[in-house]
Amino acid sequence: MKSEERRQKIKEMLENSTQPLSGKTLADTFGVTRQVIVKDMGIIKAEGMKIIPTARGYLLEKNTDNLKKREIQVCHSKEEIEKELQIIVDLGGNILQTHVNHPIYGTVGESLNIKSRKDIMDFLHKTEETGCMPLLELTKGVHTHLIAAEEETTLDEICTALKKTGFLLSQ
């Protein structure tokens, strides 16, 4: 298979997928190395396709322009990650991104796109599987999320619930 043909098939897979596609899965599918897939993704992005590299794989950026968004700063322990994320998704929110402001490295973050309990479990499983520490451990629990929902009132409800748990620092 020619590289242009492979990239076209990758584009189609991204457009039809609701879950991230891992580099390993794509490499296995096309019988190439993960480095070839990384190069393909760079070319596809340069062609204008909006691809989000996440810890779980590549995801096509969905149009979230019609969603209301809010950046919130929270603080909690590693053991409370699941509880915090569940509060957000159970009330109808989507965690688009997370980042920390590290005193040495500056802003360090990741696109998450967590919108369901399944996404939460996949995220937690990936952190356990890789042994990587969550970003919040770099800043004693303080981190920022960009969250989205269809209604501003939903974002208000999420912030109220996070405030009740003591997680919310600012919005």
TrEMBL record:
<dbReference type="InterPro" id="IPR004173">
    <property type="entry name" value="3H_domain"/>
</dbReference>
<dbReference type="InterPro" id="IPR026043">
    <property type="entry name" value="NadR"/>
</dbReference>
<dbReference type="InterPro" id="IPR036390">
    <property type="entry name" value="WH_DNA-bd_sf"/>
</dbReference>
<protein>
    <submittedName>
        <fullName>Transcription repressor NadR</fullName>
    </submittedName>
</protein>
<dbReference type="Pfam" id="PF02829">
    <property type="entry name" value="3H"/>
</dbReference>
<dbReference type="InterPro" id="IPR013196">
    <property type="entry name" value="HTH_11"/>
</dbReference>
<dbReference type="Pfam" id="PF08279">
    <property type="entry name" value="HTH_11"/>
</dbReference>
<dbReference type="InterPro" id="IPR035922">
    <property type="entry name" value="3H_dom_sf"/>
</dbReference>
<feature type="domain" description="Helix-turn-helix type 11">
    <location>
        <begin position="6"/>
        <end position="58"/>
    </location>
</feature>
<feature type="domain" description="3H">
    <location>
        <begin position="72"/>
        <end position="168"/>
    </location>
</feature>
<dbReference type="InterPro" id="IPR036388">
    <property type="entry name" value="WH-like_DNA-bd_sf"/>
</dbReference>
